[in-house]
Amino acid sequence: MGAIKVAIAGLGAIGLEVARRIDAGEIDGLELSAVAARDLLKAERNIADFRYRPKILPLERLAEEADVVVECVPAAHFLAAAEGPIRRGRILMPLSVGALLSHMHLVDLARETGARIVVPSGAILGLDAVRAVAEGNVHSVRLVTRKPPAGLAGAPMLVEKGISVEELTEPLKVFSGTAREAAKGFPANLNVSVALSLAGIGPDRTEVEVWADPTVTYNTHTIYVRSDSSQLTMMIENIPSAENPRTGVITPLSVIAALRRLTSPLVMGT
Prior knowledge:
By secondary structure, the protein is an alpha/beta fold. It folds into 2 domains: 4-122 and 250-261, NAD(P)-binding Rossmann-like Domain (Rossmann fold, 3-Layer(aba) Sandwich), CATH 3.40.50.720; 127-238, 2-Layer Sandwich (Dihydrodipicolinate Reductase, domain 2). It is built from 10 helices and 11 strands. The protein has a 6-stranded parallel β-sheet with strand order 3-2-1-4-5-6, with helices on both faces. A 5-stranded mixed β-sheet has the order 8-9-7-10-11. Helix 3 links the parallel strand 4 (68-71) and strand 5 (91-94). The chain starts with a strand and ends in a 9-residue tail after the last helix. The model has no long low-confidence stretch (mean pLDDT 95).
């Protein structure tokens, strides 16, 4: 079989790291075929030293050149990146999974076309365990997120409510609600809540708390699950990306691990 062709939508902190790893040949059986970026000149500079130069295409055309499209764009551009691979029966690997909640028709469309939507764990942990307990009876799933204020500044819900987090000297709870509400209010910050909810009991039953916390250095997520099969308490502390404090260094590594599963002869985890 030939190599699986991968296209990457967005060359920010996540997309560029993934692109570099694929181009360097670090994932057996994959090749980088195309990329899309808002700033074409910057994209040209970013891929100038690649071993094999991918095509630079509009978001809507990436699926023409790829078996897998990795979506790493702002939520406002999610549909432009996601619809093509679904219609063509490709694999879509979305990072803006919060935006998927507004476009769940894509799941039905994928069922018709044979496409697959494969969501990497990203900055969250334990989705394998949550998926497993969800096959039985789950009583509750709760996520508590604490981020340095810079990682939450400018979120739409904070702007709407006039909440400023820049000068905080102590932790402030800025949100409490469902994963669906969290995705709307923090589209660049809380894709983890949606990933957790889709792995478990859904976006309307998954409870979320968000804290702007000047006492923490890492983006911290703690998950509490109560079910008939297991009682789970899991915490992850992610080092924020130097380029984008809203995401963690682990996020592109999670994408790479998800891509590796596509060709690996041995796959671990549920």
